[in-house]
Amino acid sequence: MTKYQDPKPVKISLTEWDELYDRIPKEILGQYKYMRELPDISKSYMSKISEHFQGGDRRLGSLKYDNSLASLRLWNFLLTEEERLSDWRSAGKKLFGVMKDLGTIPVMVYSSDRGVAFYPDGAWWIPCVMELSDELFKIADEEGIGEDACPVRATIGAFINQKHFPIPDLCIAAVGSCCSDFSAIMQRIAGLGHKFLWWELPYRKDSKSWYRHGDFIKLPNGELCPSSLVSFMVQQLTRVKRGVEEEVGKQITDEMLSKSIKKANRLRGAVYKLRSLSYGTIPVPAAALELLICEMIVIHFCSDSEEAILVLEHFLNTVTTRVKNKEGILPGNPFRVTWVNPVADIKMMNLFEELGGCIAGTEYLFSHALEMIPEDIPPMEALAYMVLSDPMIGSAEYRARRIIAEVKKYKAEGVVISRIPGASHCASEGHIIRDIIKKELDIPVLDITVPSLIDAGLTSLKTRIQAFFEILAFRRSIKN
What we know:
Elements: E1 11-12, H1 14-21, H2 26-29, H3 49-54, E2 65-66, H4 69-79, H5 81-90, E3 94-99, H6 105-109, E4 115-118, H7 126-129, H8 136-142, H9 154-161, E5 170-176, H10 180-191, E6 196-201, E7 216-218, E8 224-226, H11 227-248, H12 254-279, H13 288-297, H14 305-324, E9 335-340, H15 347-354, E10 357-363, H16 379-388, H17 396-410, E11 414-419, H18 426-441, E12 445-449, H19 458-479
Parallel strand pairs: 3-4, 3-5, 5-6, 9-10, 9-11, 11-12
Antiparallel strand pairs: 1-2, 7-8
């Protein structure tokens, strides 16, 4: 049997990946679903990352990549989602565009073998990946949604030009406790005539608000919640389930939901182990960019629930081997930082490491998608628990506590809060989180805005990060 051994861990360029790719036996590449020609599909999926670059994903040319086979598989899985969705539709599956909810409704959709869920709001990264050649922001501007709105405004452009993903058979959209930018954008998309199913996402008060009431439950995130709110959430999710059933033409049973929950927990378990190994180990075994992708895949399986598990377990096995062999992908002893909010430009994760940092804990706005879903209660109730664990429907103080827990768990030396330009929830939330962290932990916090493309502001970003690291270096010297 043909075997392949990864080279010594290091970050490489796109050109270097092409050279390494040519040395990987084709028998090895042929084992992986989205790196070979499938018998029921007339075309092959792109296997080289450079093929996606040539296809228009220009940002890939300026990134640095993990040089493992597992990383290549991860990137190919991520970059073939558009093709995968088209193939699912050709195969007769119903496509559900899930909006605002992060990590829960897809578990319900994937319980049926007739449905596939994806997040159209992921279009907010397209202007970065395609370096604005997609013109999605231009379309949004023409629709009256300008730069004062979050980059998620690219989603309306993607629905209008229909070049980046198939139009969903049904959009399932949460309203209520939702950022105002995306709430307005979802309504504008619905106004274009697309089929929508709306459901209510309630606000979750802090635990201390419920201590005077005896009828409450404890959520997977540790927060307390009144039982009445859980009942309300089950009713809302039941409406969603009926909408999915109507679309796929088949009932979704509790047994089907339970199987899907187990599958989701297997994926979440792999990411939990991956985070624990990667964020808690020196030398650092995995880079920030690939880890960001791994966490993002959890929220919707990247449109293939079976392959998502295999891809992330492959990457986990690679990281486990590196830790065992004490191999790191970053040099020396980088500054350990907990990162808050996903970045608008993925190149930022490369830049941060190039300047001497590493990620030690994250809070990317969907921490509830990383929690294990309860398997010992009715499945609809379990999904209700996960919805109510969403950090975005609670207070900024709750998010601050989550971040503080990450700092303590992974022994971070500082915190970076990366603001999303134009995002309504970033206007005051960052200040609140920063002040709480400083008060509770007495560690440095850097509050920066990361634009959709960092090139124009690169000098300023470098200066601020370098100054931040100088503070961390000084604090290290005092401790030593």
